[in-house]
């Protein structure tokens, strides 16, 4: 029997991995694609732990690469359910890298993955709600609602069948764009 509401702490996941030369790009930093793969894995684990169902990635709303990660650093990812809808969950992930020799830590990445719980036939299934116990948890839930509403508004505003470029030409003036419309 699935719980109707769960504490956020029940679904949190933390993983740590040492960054190896095989994870690096041509510049000697850890490849962003490798970090994205780890982010998707921890988002899946957190969402599945919360929903007790198989979960799929519906969207990646934000991935902010803040600082590069070096070979030899210990990367720790912390995932929490920030928001739940009927079958969807927003998983917030914080990525920190630690220089093992000095102990210095840096915040390298923040990400928000929207995951959807599915049954064995691929149908969306209901997920438990969240019990919010702190201002921080309420802030994260509310921020997810705002992000979801802004995304919906952006999709509606820029839908190709209703879009009129004339309404937006003025905002391009200070950017590196040269307009050559075919008449």
UniProtKB/TrEMBL annotation:
Domain HotDog ACOT-type: 9-121
Keyword set, alphabetical order: Hydrolase
Pfam families with a match to the protein in the record: 4HBT
InterPro entries listed in its UniProt record: Cytosol_ACT, HOTDOG_ACOT, HotDog_dom_sf, PAAI_dom, Thioestr_dom
Alphabetical list of SUPFAM superfamilies matching this protein: Thioesterase/thiol ester dehydrase-isomerase
BP-aspect Gene Ontology terms: acyl-CoA metabolic process
GO cellular component terms, A-Z: cytosol
MF term (GO), any: long-chain fatty acyl-CoA hydrolase activity
PROSITE patterns xrefs: HOTDOG_ACOT
Assigned protein family: Belongs to the acyl coenzyme A hydrolase family.
Protein name per the record: Acyl-CoA thioesterase
Species this protein is from: Christiangramia sediminis
């Amino acid at each position: 029997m699935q719980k109707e509401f769960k504490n956020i702490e029940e679904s949190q996941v933390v993983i740590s991995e040492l960054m190896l030369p095989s994870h690096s790009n041509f510049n000697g930093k850890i490849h962003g694609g490798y970090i994205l793969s780890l982010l998707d894995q921890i988002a899946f684990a957190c969402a599945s732990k919360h929903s007790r169902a198989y979960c799929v990635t519906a969207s990646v709303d934000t991935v902010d690469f803040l600082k590069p990660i070096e070979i030899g650093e210990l990367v720790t990812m912390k995932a929490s359910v920030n928001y739940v809808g009927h079958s969807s969950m927003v998983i917030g992930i914080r990525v920190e890298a630690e220089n093992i020799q000095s102990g210095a830590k840096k915040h390298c990445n923040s990400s928000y993955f929207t995951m959807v719980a599915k049954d064995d036939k691929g149908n969306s299934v209901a997920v438990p709600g969240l019990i919010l116990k702190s201002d921080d948890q309420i802030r994260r839930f509310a921020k997810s609602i705002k992000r979801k509403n802004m995304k919906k508004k952006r999709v509606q505003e820029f839908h190709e069948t209703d879009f009129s470029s004339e309404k937006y030409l003025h905002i391009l003036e200070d950017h590196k764009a040269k307009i050559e419309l075919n008449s």
